[in-house]
Structures are given as structure tokens and as C-alpha cells.
Amino acid sequence: MKKGLGISTFEAAKQRINYTFDNFEKVYVSFSAGKDSTVMLHMVMDEAIKRKREVGILFIDLEAQYKATIDHAENMFKQYDEYAKIFWVCLPIHLRNAVSVYEPHWVCWEKEKEDMWVREMPKNKWVISDESYFDFFHAAMEFEEFVPLFGDWYSEGKSTACCVGIRSDESLNRYRSIARSDKAMYKDLKWTTKVTDLTYNIYPVYDWNTSDIWVFHGKNKDKDYNKLYDFMHLAGLSIHQMRICQPYGDDQRRGLWLFHLIEPQTWAKVVARVNGANSGSLYMQEWGNVNGYRKITKPKGHTWFSFAQLLINSMPPKTKEHFTNKIFTFEKWWKEQGYPDGIPDAADYQMEQKRLAPSWRRVCKSLLRNDYWCKGLGFTQHKSAAYTKYLELKKRQREEAEYRI
Questions:
Q1: Which letter does DSSP use for residue 382 in this model?
Q2: Which of 2, 65, 317, 401 has its CA 20 to 30 A from that of 269?
Q3: Which letter does DSSP use for residue 375 in this model?
Q4: Which helix (H) or strand (E) holds 89?
Q5: Where along the chain do its domains lie?
Q6: CA triplet 85, 90, 94: central angle to 5 degrees?
């Protein structure tokens, strides 16, 4: 249950930021150039300048981004350069491509594909494009691996806070990251999460709503914001629909259609960069079997199990192998949880939606959504360093169980 503090969200965020500077030796900001991280960066830097403290700023440039976003990032860094140590990371990082089963991932700033880059490599004093700059980095590292390793690297053995601009009302997963009681925290403060022995994530604006963000800019005309949101507004999006991130991700793909409206010159390169981008922009707003959103239906004459077989067998070999491993593990786990004869074709729809009951209909929905990591089946993303071993292990287990789908 949410409980009011008796103060404004702005004052509460200021108090959290002050507390962070008081209790951590080093502070840095994870900056995406989106609306939430922009407000947070302004507030953190106001306090840093007041205290004459240097703050780190981590900006991971994912290549396929709007020019307006990059211009905004550069403006912010120019404004705060005196009190900030800026890391503009342009390294080959492994990212999700949710618009294709033939190319389920892509690598931004991949040197072998320089002629296909959406943008030229930025040329400013903050850019880091040398793969040997960080001793922990390896080419095609997962984004989710890079972030915590950067925190440990930046800490230099000191207690370190990473300010992250997420808001709990944006998604259930973001709410869980704040509200869950089983996580490790800093001194039992819910707006913190322990990442490593040295680093904690701090969420200063976690309780803000979207209106709070724009009220902040309305009251602080001197604070720069990303003008891309103005164009999104003109395109008909509400303030609650506006998101900025790499365009091919599982959630972000639904905003692909905006590129050709807002920045047609960028759109041509976005389409050429990865497999499936154009069809994704055309059909990602559809419901039902096209993308697995909301309710789905099975073809005439099929069970959900046979429909799952049909979908699996239509995939290219590498993707088929990946999904087969996931489904095998899903079925195996539920067999041990009271379904010894295997999972049912369908279960109570509400129970399925809450992930409290297994079914082949749930499997079909994940396949139709191209849910690569099968988060809809309860899985999380694997680390790249361990993923090859994971594939080998699952293949051996399937062979031992004589598993077929």
C-alpha cells in the first residue's frame, strides 16, 4: 500500500538526494536522456554544485537513437561538465532485436558493420569507443552485464551510489524493484537496492508520476529537456505513452512507427540496420495472433500444444533451439509442482494471466510475442558469459529425457 509522506514529491526527492551525498563516498547518475533521468540529473547536479562534489554520469549510447536525444545529451553535458565526470559509452554492446526471429539480437557500434551504423560515431571529448578503456569490457557484452560492472569499476573500492531515474508507476516490474521486501537495501530504505558489495542503486524520483516530471520543467524554464517529447506530442502521443530507448527492444518496438514521422532521415537507417524493423513498425500495434498481445486464438483443427509445435517448427534452427530449451525447462518445473502428466492445453485464463497456472496456451502466447527470454513463462535474462554452457546443459538434459516438441 502506498503511504503519503506529507510533503511534495519534489521535496521527497531532494531529501533522498541529500541523504545519498551524505552517506556515499562516490555518486554517479545512470542517464538515458529520457524525461525521468533528465529531471533526476538536474536535481543531483544542483546538489553536487552546491557541495562542490564531482558526480559521474554514465550515458550508454545505443547507436540507433533519435538525433534529438543525442543533441539533448550533449547539451546536458556541456551544462554540467565542470562538476561531472562524463562517460559517453559507444562500445559494441549486445542488445535485443524483438522484431525478428532470424536476427534476435544485434550489436550496437559493431565495427564490422560500420557502413550500416544508424549514426556516425560522435566526436566529442566524452566519448569512449576504445574497447580497452574498461578492464572488464569484452566485445558484445550484454547491456545488463555492463551496468553493474561499470559501477564496481567506478567505485574504486569506495561506497558508491548510482542514481537511477525509474518511476514505479511506469510498469509492474519497476514497481516491484522498489516495493519488494526480499531485496537487499541500504539501511532498509525501500528506495535503494544493493547491486554489489560496493554499489547501491538509488531511486530519487521513484514515487513521481508523469505529470510531476512536466510540472518540474514548467517551473524550471532554465532546465533543458529533450525536445523529442514535443514531436511525440505533435504525433498524437499522450504524456504517458512517451518512451525513449533503443528501438528494437521487446517493449520499445511498439514505438518504431514514430521514427518515420519524427526523423525520416534516421528512419531509413533504422530500417536497414536490423532484420524485421520495417514489418515491426507496420504490425507491432496489432492485437491477437499477429503479436500475441491480449487474447490469442488457435488455428482450426489445432490444440494449443499442436499450435506450439507449428510455431516452433516454423523458426530458424538457432531460434528454435533456444525456445525449445525454454519450453522444456518450463514444462519440467511444472511437472515437479503438481503436474506429473505434463502441463494442460489450457487453464483458467485469469490464473494464466497471473502466471499461477501453466498451459500450452501460455507457451503459444510467448512464441507469438517473440518473447525471446520467455519472461511471460517466468524466466529472466541469462548472462552472456554463461549462456553457451546453459545451452549445452539443456541440450544434454533434453536428450536424456528424449524430449520432443
A1: P
A2: 317
A3: G
A4: strand 84-89
A5: 9-211, 304-401
A6: 125
